[in-house]
Write a structure and sequence with these properties.
The chain is 72% helix and 2% strand. It is mainly α and 370 residues long. This is Urea ABC transporter membrane protein.
């Protein structure tokens, strides 16, 4: 009981330190540009938390999170473009006017409402995940087949968006001016967006921790390690996987919705195969089986990509792929597992304690004189 209380207070302290770093230290030491860049990285961290749950705990190699990221992002982008058009007194967004589209498409109409937009960000990607998950897991598709299928979905989604003139085609949607009534060119509102992204990340991490250390989390790990035994005990592994897959989809959708006002653009290049693999690389490097490893790995990889791609624009993609292969092949636990490995080796190198000396009375043979 004492250990449980101690662990609980350590968790509280960890969240408190993270809150101080995000809400006090980062705004104080970073410029507006760097703070906005960190907000973009936090969105990637939200996606990574869901991947850590589905892949690290559930063993599902989700290579298609760009689909759910893109759904949330495009839903938010459509609402923002409609709002900007209303502020100008127009009936359709600016890019539709240039393309000669006079009427707002029917599937854009519901997202004129902020409430419907928020509900769409939550329920549309999760609904898609439920439908896909039922079709995949009930048929017991797993392993490499699941990974290839999820990656094919991301590729198909990006190709579909490129061919849609009403979603901006290959250019995507950009040049947003407002966010639920707030002017995006105001530095104070940009800072508010960072705080929203930071709060969302902390909430997502807290929810994921609760799932990991609950009875469901134990079942998810059991399904990953011994699926047939779990089925023999009377549980349906498909339903257990479906929950993790849907939660990961919801987190990706929320991240995409926050990514749009923070970065100011969403295009098919942000939702295809390459972004989906980039999400996965960050999780693998950080440590997919841990709680904070995926977040730190995703933020670190995004930071490296932003800084190193300026110096090595053509070589970064190859370096990223090589890094993923090295980590998965030689450090499957990621950077978070290096600390545990070092502690294990240090403990193994310690000399064994000497055997206790036998008691003198026990060493005296029976019947011997004292």
């Amino acid at each position: 009981m004492k250990q449980f209380v101690s662990t609980r207070w350590q968790v509280y302290a960890g969240f408190a330190i993270a809150a101080v770093l995000l809400f006090a230290v980062a705004p104080a030491v970073l410029s507006d540009f760097r703070l906005n860049l960190l907000g973009k990285f936090l969105c990637f961290g939200i996606v990574a938390v869901g991947i850590g749950l589905a892949w690290g705990r559930g063993g599902m190699l989700v290579l298609g999170q760009g689909v759910f990221f893109g759904l949330g992002a495009y839903i938010m982008a459509m609402h923002l473009k409609i709002s900007d058009a209303e502020l100008r007194g127009d009936t359709v967004p600016d890019f539709m006017q240039i393309a000669g589209i006079a009427d707002l498409p029917g599937y854009w109409q519901p997202f004129t409402s902020p409430v419907v937009t928020i509900l769409g960000i939550i329920f549309i990607p999760t609904g898609v995940a439920v439908v896909l998950g039922l079709g995949i897991f009930k048929r017991r598709v797993k392993g490499a087949y699941f990974a290839i299928l999820s990656q094919a979905l991301a590729a198909a989604f990006a190709i579909l968006l490129v061919g849609q003139q009403t979603t901006g085609g290959s250019n995507g949607l950009n040049r947003f001016r407002s966010f639920f009534g707030l002017a995006l060119n105001d530095p104070a509102n940009k800072r508010l967006l960072f705080f929203i992204a930071a709060a969302a990340l902390l909430i997502v991490v807290a929810v994921t921790r609760q799932l990991m250390y609950s009875r469901y989390g134990e079942l998810l790990v059991a399904v990953r390690d011994q699926e047939e035994r779990v089925r023999f005990l009377g549980y349906d592994p498909a339903n257990i996987k479906l929950v993790a897959y849907t939660v990961a989809a919801l987190f990706a959708s929320i991240a995409g919705a926050l990514f749009v006002p923070v970065v100011g653009i969403i295009s098919p290049a942000d939702v295809g195969i390459v972004p989906s693999i980039a999400f996965l690389i960050g999780v693998a490097i950080g440590g997919r089986t841990t709680l904070l490893g995926p977040v730190l790995g995703a933020i670190g990889v995004a930071w490296a990509q932003t800084n190193l791609s300026e110096s090595f624009p053509s070589g970064w993609v190859y370096a990223q792929g090589l890094l993923f292969i090295v980590v998965v092949g030689f450090f499957p636990a990621g950077l978070a597992g290096l600390g545990a490995l070092a502690r294990w080796r240090r403990k193994r190198a310690e000399p064994d304690p000497p055997d206790p000396e036998p008691d003198k009375a026990e060493a005296t043979p029976v019947g011997a004189s004292s």
